């Protein structure tokens, strides 16, 4: 996984000149801090080099961000890399701060836990553009879920968390990437989502479900290949071909988009079972259920949630097929960022940039000491057991 030749050299993140204000989120691999220097606020992700898999994932995530920072690769719905830092114990890197939190929180804050179809159209259109851009770079995202969709200060979305993404061979079909279909009328989106409520202002999000355990235990590398055989994703968003271990390509992202759109419409995912096994059985066997009359939105979801990846919307001509769907009639794809009033605009963070905060390295040291203490082997436990027990990616 060599950096691509066109990647800009990363700026060095100077940990001496920044202070962290709070933890924005904790995931399977890292901790994300809101940090500041005297000039600006940004997000810093810190990943322990505790295992070879977290090391590999962090390196890969930095590499994807680096590629996204090349001027010709920048996209309004994808982040760029501001700076990086590496010590013998950890990686840290800074990306722009998204003050609106994630789409999961926003969805849960709605009175009935769902979005209207015009709001769904706004968010899905931007996500389609982000995925289209990644695919055009030969990257399958593979971890689409509301927790990984962040809201920028402007109200537009940014995808985050690229550690499960994968470099695949770019589609070579000539019709795959065509100019945006465009259309006559621009669409206006009214601002109707209530601002942040008190109950959700604090507290870290808890991921809804852990990453799935590897079922196909084939070792994978991140080198380019046409299809990937690794087993990754989040239970409720995993596609049938991933569960079957058939090998998968960019169509896994269109499946996950179907699950996400369904969740935005109904407030719950379509295949969730009482257990992981039941969820997977549903993904493989069950057709999604739609309350109410069929319409363009349910039609879009249905065509994304086609079990056969070769018949799924997007599998033949990529994002163009999705953009042409009747649900998006009237959307000016080239003007998405010009929409003046996205559905939700975050309140401005009122932060004094010269004072306050804590040192990220001190925080890291404390965490490490606590981890060391809690992982001290009891006389009855073998060291290898302690070391591997909690690493969900040990076989990835
Ligand atoms: N740029 C950002 N601005 C604001 N919040 C962010 C930013 N990046 C990440 N976060 C918050 O931190 C959370 C965890 O980030 P991220 O998903 O990158 O970490 P992770 O360790 O890779 O998690 P996962 O277990 O999902 O892989 C996000 O869901 C989000 O709430």
TrEMBL record:
Keyword Transcription: no
Positions bound to ATP: 45
One of the record's GO molecular function terms: protein serine/threonine kinase activity
Pfam families the UniProt entry points to: Pkinase (PF00069)
Domain AGC-kinase C-terminal residue range list: 329-396
Alphabetic keyword roster: ATP-binding, Kinase, Nucleotide-binding, Serine/threonine-protein kinase, Transferase
Catalytic activity: L-threonyl-[protein] + ATP = O-phospho-L-threonyl-[protein] + ADP + H(+); L-seryl-[protein] + ATP = O-phospho-L-seryl-[protein] + ADP + H(+)
Region span, Disordered: 170-229
Domain Protein kinase residues, every copy: 18-328
Family according to the record: Belongs to the protein kinase superfamily. AGC Ser/Thr protein kinase family.
Protein name: non-specific serine/threonine protein kinase
